[in-house]
Amino acid sequence: MITRKNYEAFYLDFLEGTLSKEMERAFLAFLDANPDLQINDDELPVLDEETISLTEFDKLLLKKHDGASTHFDSAQRAPLSLHITKHNIEYFLIAQLEGTLTEGEKIELERWLTLHPEYLKDKALYAKTILPKENIAYLNKSDLYQDARIIPLWARVSSIAASVILLIGIGSYFTFKSVEVDGLNIPQFSKQTTVPVKVDDQGKENKLINPAKSDKGVTPYAPLRESQEEKKDNLANNVEQPKNNDNKELKENQPVTNQNGVILPDQPDLATHVTEKHNPETQTEQNDYAYGLMENPIEPITNELSKRLNTIIDFRRAKETEQSGFFIKIGKFEFLHKKGGKH
Amino acid sequence: MTTKEYNESVDLYADAIYRFVVKHLRNSMLSQDVVQETFAKVWEKHQEISAEKAKSYLFTTAYHTLIDVIKKENRSGSLENVAVMPSDKPKESFDLKDILNEALDRLPEIQKTVIMLRDYEGYAYDEIAEITKLNESQVKVYIFRGRQTLKGYLKSIELVA
Fold first, then answer.
1. CB-based burial label for B91 (10 Å; 0-12, 13-18, 19+)
2. A-contacting residues of B 81-100, CB under 8 Å?
3. DSSP 3-state assignment of A15?
4. b vs e for A275-303, b when ≥16 Cβ sit within 10 Å of the residue's Cβ?
């Protein structure tokens, strides 16, 4: 039974021609009875074939070429078999711009444009679609550089040079800053001095030793504070003598390590290193002078520098007023200044 | 790629990467972030990248970082607020560069990308395909369609003029 509520389904089947003869007669009778439901031909939606079809331009983009179908190098493919027309001219104009035409296609295009000069303007417009170079600079390149660029070698050299200058400056200050009192040249600084100490295997007994005579197997090797008088006596005797020590001093004798836990060379290594570079005949004199008659008044500073730069840094000044001078060691570099001159 | 080669890549390609990004985003600050992120990502893998491939790797990384940023910013709506949106009316300026920039902004992002890689960096279709993870045929189609749109825009400006 066809009604005003369900007639649309019958109408579509009628238009499609799928209704049976009997149903078709019934539907036409229904339309006669309800003329307001009739649809004129121009009211029916008709798909426009032209608007949904692909253009020649689109079709050419879809086409593959003989030979190297995935390459657009014009030298590697066969020319298109299609003729150039007004419908596909844009494809060829762009292809010419992109350099993807074969030699045959280029000739064909030029011939076609000669016959249709009105399209030369389109060719010129396509040429303008090539984006011109623009100078846009990224100003924060320095943020992008990595270490090798940021910390060049000269910076490391500069840090070492600065350390040398610092030590020489401090050395000059301690060495030459003295005052005349009643005709005597007395150092203004009367800091506690250091003397090399030998510790036995148990670490219980410490002995004063002469660094020049110390064997390499004796470690650790650390300063022990004592008075100037005691020191003078010990050095004058130049004989190993027992000396009391306490636990605090033993702790100070522990090897110095850097941040990575690597044990840094301590003073015995320094003494050994000094002797390696010099004439054996002058070795004792050097060591005596550097370690026997000299002291390190800025030991915390030199130790810190040794840790930071991971190299041996030491500084010593003369203990006695009559033996002015100082000794500086930075890695392999050694500088000894005595009254008589440099070594 | 050594540290030295990486730093040379900064000198050689940072400007081009920045231009590529800022042309898309139209936002200097956001573009600088993308450049920073791009080079940071490349530095993380610099030992695995050969110096010859540095440029391609940088553009590939920049492109994908850019896409991520565009998606993120579009979701938040912040990009639309700062981007220079193309106007409906043709631009009154008749400077070709300005007109082209205006036309470029009207292109879909992918067409804009492939045309910029083609014209600014001189990449071949296969190289653009590698960077954008498209195939060569797609690259060709996007370039051809993009050029067609650009030319149509230029023609409309000429008609107005």
1. middle
2. 96-97, 100
3. helix
4. beebeeeebbebbbbbbbbbbbbbbebbb
Nearest residue to B133 (alpha-carbon basis) of B53, B65, B60, B38: B60
Distance in Å from the first CA to the final CA of chain A: 126
Q: Which residues of B touch A132 (CB under 8 A)?
A: 96-97, 100
Q: Provide CB contacts within 8 A for A218, sequence distance 6+.
A: A198, A199, A209, A268
B1-85: CATH topology:
Rna Polymerase Sigma Factor; Chain: A (1.10.1740)
Q: Which residues of B touch A137 (CB under 8 A)?
A: 15, 18
Across the interface, of A122, A131, A137, the residue whose CB is closest to B116 is A131
Q: Which residues of B touch A100 (CB under 8 A)?
A: 140
- Per-residue pLDDT tens for B71-92? 888 776 655 444 444 444 555 5
| Distance in angstroms (rounded) separating the CA atoms of residues A38 and A34 | 8
Minimal Cβ distance to B143: which of A98, A133, A148: A98
Q: List chain A domain ranges.
A: 7-46, 50-127, 153-342
A144 to B39: CB separation less than 8 angstroms, yes or no? yes
The whole-angstrom distance between A314's CA and the closest CA on chain B is: 35
Q: What are the tens digits of pLDDT across the range A144-169?
A: 888 754 455 566 667 677 777 777 77
Range B87-161 has CATH code 3.40.50.10420: no
**CA pair distance A51, A151, nearest whole angstrom:** 66
